[in-house]
Structures are given as C-alpha cells and as structure tokens.
UniProtKB/TrEMBL annotation:
<protein>
    <recommendedName>
        <fullName>CDP-diacylglycerol--glycerol-3-phosphate 3-phosphatidyltransferase</fullName>
        <ecNumber>2.7.8.5</ecNumber>
    </recommendedName>
</protein>
<dbReference type="GO" id="GO:0006655">
    <property type="term" value="P:phosphatidylglycerol biosynthetic process"/>
</dbReference>
<keyword id="KW-1208">Phospholipid metabolism</keyword>
<comment type="pathway">
    <text>Phospholipid metabolism; phosphatidylglycerol biosynthesis; phosphatidylglycerol from CDP-diacylglycerol: step 1/2.</text>
</comment>
<feature type="transmembrane region" description="Helical">
    <location>
        <begin position="164"/>
        <end position="182"/>
    </location>
</feature>
<feature type="transmembrane region" description="Helical">
    <location>
        <begin position="40"/>
        <end position="62"/>
    </location>
</feature>
<dbReference type="InterPro" id="IPR000462">
    <property type="entry name" value="CDP-OH_P_trans"/>
</dbReference>
<keyword id="KW-0594">Phospholipid biosynthesis</keyword>
<keyword id="KW-1133">Transmembrane helix</keyword>
<dbReference type="GO" id="GO:0008444">
    <property type="term" value="F:CDP-diacylglycerol-glycerol-3-phosphate 3-phosphatidyltransferase activity"/>
</dbReference>
<dbReference type="InterPro" id="IPR048254">
    <property type="entry name" value="CDP_ALCOHOL_P_TRANSF_CS"/>
</dbReference>
<feature type="transmembrane region" description="Helical">
    <location>
        <begin position="12"/>
        <end position="28"/>
    </location>
</feature>
<dbReference type="GO" id="GO:0005886">
    <property type="term" value="C:plasma membrane"/>
</dbReference>
<dbReference type="InterPro" id="IPR043130">
    <property type="entry name" value="CDP-OH_PTrfase_TM_dom"/>
</dbReference>
<keyword id="KW-0472">Membrane</keyword>
<dbReference type="InterPro" id="IPR004570">
    <property type="entry name" value="Phosphatidylglycerol_P_synth"/>
</dbReference>
<feature type="transmembrane region" description="Helical">
    <location>
        <begin position="83"/>
        <end position="107"/>
    </location>
</feature>
Length: 192
C-alpha cells in the first residue's frame, strides 16, 4: 500500500476518535476564545476533524507528486471524505447544531453518488473527484468546522457564518451531485 492510501486510511481511523471525543459525555471544562465559550471536548473534536480533513489535501498532493494515483485511491479517498463528513454532520444533529433536514440532503447525495460510482466501476470506469466535488467537500469541511467551533470567530461580528456556510455547503452538495448524474447518465440507459 502506498503512502497516499495510508494517509487516506488514517483519515478513516480518526473518525472513531472524533466520535468518542464529541459524544463521550466527558466534561473537561470550557474554554473562552474571542469572547465565546465552548466545551473543551468540542474544541478538541473540532481540531481532530480539521486535522483529519487536512489529510485529504495531503494524500492528494503526495499521490500526484509521487505519481502514485491508483484506482484504489480514487475509490477510497472520496469514501473517506464521505465517512468523515457524514459522521461529523450526524454529531452536529445530535448536539442540536445542524438541522436534520439539511444533513439528510447532504448524506443522501453522498449515498447516491457512491451508488453511481459503484455502477460505473461495474463497467470498469473509476471516476475521480472533479473540481465541483472538491469544492463541495471543502465547503462542507468549512461549515462543519465553524459549527463544531460554535462560530467563535464570527461571533464577534454577530455574523451567523456557520449557518451561512452550511447552506453554501448544501448548495454545492446538491449541484455537484446533479453534475455527477448528468455527466454519467449513460450508465442508466445501458442498464436493464
């Protein structure tokens, strides 16, 4: 297994750690940052999420730089993103920080595109993430990070940045999903 794929797998392995930190119920106290107070567990959980999300850039960088792009990596990388984002969104619903209907739309799109990728793979075609899919992923990461951090940076300016970012993430999620299906609609006309 090459280095980029190991980095991708490390992203998947960080998900249980993130979940334990966010949902364990331990109280490690609170911290005040820029006048906003949040539980230390949320700060640590957010940092784990941000670190795990950053590995998405790192594995892609090394895959391209070292010419280690593989079909396994093309499949595993977006799957790792979907698992991490889905876990974080479900945690945010559990904490009352994200509306469930938006999370359902985002996760449904992730399942639908994964199903499309599986149909395409059956025909021998492996689809790597396109630019719109990458924008979607980063929009989701920004929104989730802001929500996990209780919007602390923008709280000073009374801007609901986290909520706005979540709406933007949903927009790009739906748009990129629609784009994947339109560009690969032939898979449905060829099936019986």
């Amino acid at each position: 297994m090459n280095l980029p794929n190991k980095i991708t797998i490390s992203r998947i392995c960080l998900i249980p750690l993130f979940l334990i930190i966010m949902l364990s119920g331990f109280s490690w106290g609170e911290v005040t940052i820029l006048g906003a107070t949040l539980p230390i567990t949320h700060l640590i959980g957010a940092l784990v999420f941000i670190f795990a999300s950053a590995t998405d850039w790192v594995d892609g960088y090394y895959a391209r730089k070292l010419n280690l792009v593989t079909n396994f990596g093309k499949f595993l990388d977006p799957l790792a993103d979907k698992l991490l984002v889905s876990a974080a969104l479900i945690v945010l619903v559990e904490l009352g920080s994200a509306p469930s209907w938006i999370v359902i739309i985002i996760i449904s799109r992730e399942f639908a595109v994964t199903g499309l990728r599986l149909l395409l793979a059956e025909g021998g075609e492996v689809v790597a993430a396109n630019m719109l899919g990458k924008i979607k992923t980063w929009a989701q990461i920004v929104a989730i990070s802001a929500l996990l951090l209780h919007n602390i940076i923008f709280e000073l300016f009374s801007i609901p940045f986290a909520d706005i970012a979540l709406w933007i993430a949903m927009f790009f999620t739906v748009w990129s999903g629609w784009d994947y299906f339109i560009k690969n609609k032939q898979v449905f006309s060829n099936s019986k």
